[in-house]
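Appendix C: a fully annotated inverse folding record. The material below is reproduced so that readers can follow the format used throughout the book. The structure is listed first as C-alpha cells, followed by the designed sequence.
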C-alpha cells in the first residue's frame, strides 16, 4: 500500500523585494497515513473482544483449574473471581462463545484486508528482518544505541506482530477443539487430544497477554503520536519518513561541491 503524506505549512511574511525566498512556506510538520481504517477498526474491536474472552475464559478455567486427573484433583492455580467475567460457568460460556465470533470475524477481516491490499508487507516478518532483531533487543532491553528507523515497524515489532497473528490463529483452532471435541476430533487429535488442546489453548492465552503487555510498553516508549495514529490513521513526523525533496538537494550539494568542498565557490568563466 502506498502511504499518503500531508504537510502542515506556515506562510512566511515577505520582508522585501530583494528577498526572493522570504515568502516561501515553512513546513511545520509532516504526517503519514500509516494505519488504514479497516486495520484500526479491527484493532479496537479486538481489544474489546480479547478483554472479554480472556476474562470469561479464566472464569471457565475456574470451574476446573487443573490439567490433570479429576480424581484426585490437583488445582494448577486459584484465579480470583473478581478478575473473571461471567459469574459462573454457564454465564462465562455465554460471554466466551458470543465474543468468539466477534474475535474470529475481526481476525478474518484484518487478515483479508492485509492480503488483498498488500498492506501485510508493513508488518510481516521476513528473512531480511532477522539481522535487525538483535540491535532492537539491545536498544529496548540493554539501553544500546537506537538503530535508524527505515520503515513504519522495526524488525522486532514485525516479529512481535507476526507472532501475535500466529497466536491468534492458534487460540481459535485450540478453542474449536476444546469447544467441539467430537465434531473437530481431527483437530483435537492433531493437538494430542482434548487435554492437550486445553493446555495449548491456555498457553496461547498467556502468550497473547504477554504480547499485549509488551505492546503497551512499546506504545509508551514510542510516544503520543504513535498512539494517536491508531485512532486517526495519521502519524505525525515519523522517524522513517524522508521528504522527497531531501534527496535531490543532497545530490546537488555533492555535485556543486567540486574540489573546493561543500563550501567552495563555483568557478566563474568570463
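Designed amino acids, in order:
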Amino acid at each position: 500500500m502506498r502511504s499518503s503524506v500531508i504537510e502542515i505549512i506556515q506562510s512566511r511574511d515577505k520582508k522585501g523585494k530583494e528577498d526572493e525566498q522570504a515568502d516561501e512556506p515553512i513546513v511545520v510538520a509532516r504526517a503519514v497515513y500509516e494505519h488504514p481504517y479497516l486495520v484500526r477498526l479491527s484493532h479496537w474491536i479486538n481489544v474489546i473482544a480479547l478483554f472479554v474472552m480472556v476474562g470469561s475464559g479464566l472464569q471457565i478455567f475456574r470451574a476446573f483449574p487443573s490439567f490433570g486427573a479429576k480424581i484426585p484433583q490437583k488445582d494448577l492455580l486459584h484465579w480470583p473471581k473478581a478478575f473473571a467475567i461471567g459469574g459462573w460457568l454457564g454465564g462465562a460460556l455465554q460471554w466466551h462463545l458470543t465474543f468468539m465470533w466477534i474475535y474470529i470475524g475481526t481476525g478474518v477481516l484484518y487478515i483479508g484486508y492485509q492480503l488483498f491490499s498488500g498492506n501485510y508487507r508493513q508488518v510481516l516478518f521476513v528473512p531480511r528482518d532477522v539481522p535487525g532483531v538483535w540491535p532492537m533487543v539491545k536498544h529496548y532491553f540493554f539501553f544500546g544505541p537506537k538503530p535508524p528507523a527505515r520503515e513504519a515497524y522495526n524488525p522486532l515489532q514485525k516479529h512481535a506482530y507476526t507472532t501475535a497473528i500466529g497466536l491468534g490463529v492458534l487460540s481459535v483452532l485450540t478453542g474449536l477443539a476444546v469447544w467441539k471435541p467430537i465434531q473437530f476430533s481431527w483437530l483435537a487429535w492433531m493437538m494430542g487430544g482434548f487435554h492437550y488442546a486445553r493446555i495449548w489453548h491456555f498457553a496461547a492465552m498467556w502468550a497473547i497477554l504477554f504480547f499485549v503487555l509488551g505492546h503497551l510498553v512499546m506504545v509508551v516508549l514510542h510516544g503520543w503520536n504513535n498512539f494517536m495514529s491508531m485512532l486517526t490513521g495519521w502519524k505525525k513526523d515519523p522517524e522513517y519518513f524522508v521528504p522527497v525533496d531531501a534527496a535531490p538537494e543532497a545530490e546537488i550539494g555533492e555535485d556543486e561541491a567540486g574540489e573546493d568542498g561543500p563550501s567552495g565557490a563555483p568557478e566563474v568563466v568570463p
